[in-house]
Write a structure and sequence with these properties.
The chain is an all-alpha fold. Helix content is 71%, strand content 0%. It is built from seven helices and no strands. It is elongated.
Length: 170
């Protein structure tokens, strides 16, 4: 099944690097713009939430790319996408090209994260090298999917409960 491990590695690297770069972009020119936008959509305090989002994107992306703590990295991505869906995309239709961007992108990233969490990182991963997969074990199958889904939804809902204060409608 070397082909499976190869395509899973390519997928993990592609998705992980994309997520990490998304976080890096928030930090690249200073967090001010991101913080202001977060405040405007109800994620308060904006600066703290901007940093948390950026570092979670960078961290979860890097971990997924190398295949370390894979279901936890995937759970972080689901949490991020759940928050993004709720505060920025849910009222804008499905397609990303809709005005104000629909929820298509956050949906597919969340689904992809669940798939990786359920399938596991594969044999070409740090998880496998250090023995966290044990031929499937804790970090794949139903257990991996459950860790990913419950951790992701739980993290996202907790983030929203603590920090989301919707702006008053005009």
């Amino acid at each position: 099944m070397a082909h499976f491990d190869f395509v899973l590695l390519v997928f993990r690297i592609g998705m992980g690097v994309t997520m990490a770069l998304h976080g890096w972009n928030k930090l690249r020119k200073g967090i001010g713009g991101t913080a202001g936008w977060f405040e405007s959509i109800g994620m308060r305090p904006g600066k703290l939430n901007g940093y948390m989002a950026a570092f979670t994107e960078i961290g979860s992306g890097a971990l997924l790319a190398i295949g370390l703590f894979t279901p936890l990295a995937a759970a972080a991505m689901i949490g991020l996408m759940l928050v993004a869906y709720w505060v920025a995309h849910r009222n804008n239709g499905f397609f990303i090209f809709n005005k104000d961007q629909g929820w298509e992108y956050v949906f597919i990233i969340g689904i992809a994260a669940l798939v990786v969490g359920g399938v596991g990182p594969g044999r070409w991963s740090v998880d496998d090298v250090v023995g966290l997969t044990n031929g499937g074990g804790l970090y794949s199958g139903w257990t991996g999917a459950l860790i990913t889904l419950v951790g992701g939804i739980g993290g996202g809902v907790t983030q929203l409960a603590i920090f989301y204060r919707p702006p008053a409608k005009a």
